[in-house]
UniProtKB/TrEMBL annotation:
Primary location recorded for the protein, binned into one broad class: secreted
Domain of life per record: Eukaryota
Family affiliation: In the N-terminal section; belongs to the PMEI family. In the C-terminal section; belongs to the pectinesterase family.
Pathway: Glycan metabolism; pectin degradation; 2-dehydro-3-deoxy-D-gluconate from pectin: step 1/5
Location(s) in or outside the cell: Secreted, Cell wall
Source organism of this protein record: Prunus avium (Cherry)
Protein name per its UniProtKB record: Pectinesterase
Designated gene of the protein: LOC110752697
Catalyzed reactions: [(1->4)-alpha-D-galacturonosyl methyl ester](n) + n H2O = [(1->4)-alpha-D-galacturonosyl](n) + n methanol + n H(+)
Purpose: Acts in the modification of cell walls via demethylesterification of cell wall pectin.
Taxonomy of the source species: Eukaryota, Viridiplantae, Streptophyta, Embryophyta, Tracheophyta
Amino acid sequence: MASFLFLPLLSLALFLSLTSAARNLQPRMHVTAPIPLIQQVCKATRFPDTCQATLAGLVTDPNTTPIQAIQSAIQVSTDGVHTAQKMVKAILDSSAGNQHRTTAANNCLDDLGNSRYRISLATDNLSRGSIKNSRASMSAALLYQYECWSGLKYGNDTQMVNETMSFLDSLVGKSSNALSMMYSYDNFGNDTKFWAQPKTERDGFWERVEGRGSGQGVRGGVPSNLTADVTVCKEKTEKCYRTVQRAVNAAPDNPGEKKFVIRIKAGVYDEIVRVPLEKRNVVFLGDGIGKTVITGSLNVGLPGISTYNSATVGVLGDGFMASGLTIQNTAGPDVHQAVAFRSDSDLSVIENCEFLGNQDTLYAHGNRQFYKSCNIQGNVDFIFGNSAAVFQDCNILIRPRQLNPEIGGSSTVTAHGRTDPAQSTGFVFQNCLINGTEEFMKLNQNNPEVHKSYLGRPWKEYSRTVFINCTMEALLSPDGWMTWSEDFALSTLFYGEFGNSGAGSDFSKRVPFSSKIPSEHVNTYSVQNFIQGNEWIST
Ligand SMILES: *[C@@H]1O[C@H](CO)[C@@H](O)[C@H](O)[C@H]1NC(C)=O
Ligand SMILES: *[C@@H]1O[C@H](CO)[C@@H](O)[C@H](O)[C@H]1NC(C)=O
Ligand SMILES: *[C@@H]1O[C@H](CO)[C@@H](O)[C@H](O)[C@H]1NC(C)=O
Ligand SMILES: *[C@@H]1O[C@H](CO)[C@@H](O)[C@H](O)[C@H]1NC(C)=O
Ligand SMILES: *[C@@H]1O[C@H](CO)[C@@H](O)[C@H](O)[C@H]1NC(C)=O
Ligand SMILES: *[C@@H]1O[C@H](CO)[C@@H](O)[C@H](O)[C@H]1NC(C)=O
Ligand SMILES: *[C@@H]1O[C@H](CO)[C@@H](O)[C@H](O)[C@H]1NC(C)=O
């Protein structure tokens, strides 16, 4: 065996030295003619050959600006989504009676619709010079394309699905290319000679940020002067909506900047609530945690229910706000994925809210979200998704697993799902407490070996999560972070810690794939730099 292995290695080494020799020669060969723009911009991407092939017919004018080149790359993605929508529609039309495939195709169509919307925002913001907004939207557009592909796996039993999946796979690559160019533009501006494949903190690269800022930065939240447009209540005598969903339905579609404020009076609302994409700027104002409660129990064990669809409250519309309420999923600890709150709302502010569940409690799915002074409880991967979310002053509590909790098992606070190094997503915990519920702490104290808790594990390859200035109680396992599956993502993820305190914060026994954030780079994760909160969170 050994000699068989040796040969390919040798020829690989030979190949590498030959190609690097060729690379060294290149500048001299091209010394007279400047490298064409298309090659310059494509060197920012992870799939430069695809990039050059797709842009070949589109970027021909030698005076094309870098921004115009990025716009062309985005156009390729738009066209691809359009084709994918037709393909998935055809799958849906041919899948009557097949529940798995029908569910997968319907979810996929939703994903593609969301992707198109985000691409249009990315295009508009790019031409207005707002690269941060543009990149945030394109990060989400890529997420939805990936999810469409990923969801089809559950219905991949026909040639048509198989072909659609290969198409989506190539579309994800093309969109990644557009996003990588945005990354380079964001960091190096118009000077395309500096453009290069996206690097992450794990490569020792910290992205360019505005100023150094001071510590915690933005500390705003839900404005205190909001007044109710409509009310939801339980009292039969009062004039009010009886369900939260009916009040949401009453909100205007595609409104301007004005908030639509729904006061939800104390009571238990047993319903599934959806805030669709066109209902922007909806606000839920409850009477307090534990007083206003929205409760559901959907879970993946039920026919036609995916993790995404299991949410008790699911929000797509941008600018969503909530304060003073509890949202829970009571499916229980034995049923696997059962989401309490899922959000794709860009520029969303959640304050003084409580999220209760077990596995997958809070699905911070996509876009930019700010959580302040919230209580979040669960056990397995209970804060997860591929958004850029900041959690400030939150209480994160681990709950017991299983109906027979003595059996124990490992719990993980987070499972961030970034799939591409150019996505501007990640989870930031600032000034939070990591502890267990009283019930969990009793179990943990009796038998710490079987009730282990971790800060997170990598759901996807470029998972990114940081804890800054947090209090970590002793329940946290000294190694801190867990693997997903063998060595998956361990060399590409970024798990950072800075300024934490408490018995669980000791860094000396941490896994080798976690990092201390250098103090000069902590500012990367401020509310301002990470989610541009200074532009949209009121103080
Ligand atoms: C720019 O992006 C922001 C955040 O996604 C969005 O609210 C806004 O509508 C976008 N602007 C344009 C002109 O599309
Ligand atoms: C799936 O599609 C790929 C690429 O189009 C093709 O090579 C492969 O044979 C297909 N497999 C099945 C089982 O249809
Ligand atoms: C779909 O399933 C077929 C048969 O199991 C498999 O060969 C193919 O790789 C799958 N397609 C994708 C894109 O995963
Ligand atoms: C890049 O050049 C365009 C003009 O082509 C200009 O509008 C833009 O501000 C420049 N970007 C940066 C980051 O300097
Ligand atoms: C961390 O906490 C210290 C002390 O309270 C504060 O001065 C600093 O600004 C905080 N830093 C961050 C990044 O939150
Ligand atoms: C609430 O206060 C903000 C400033 O904090 C102001 O811009 C806004 O107009 C006020 N809204 C109402 C409804 O008074
Ligand atoms: C953590 O939880 C335990 C048990 O409920 C409690 O005694 C302890 O005070 C909590 N720690 C913090 C910092 O609140």
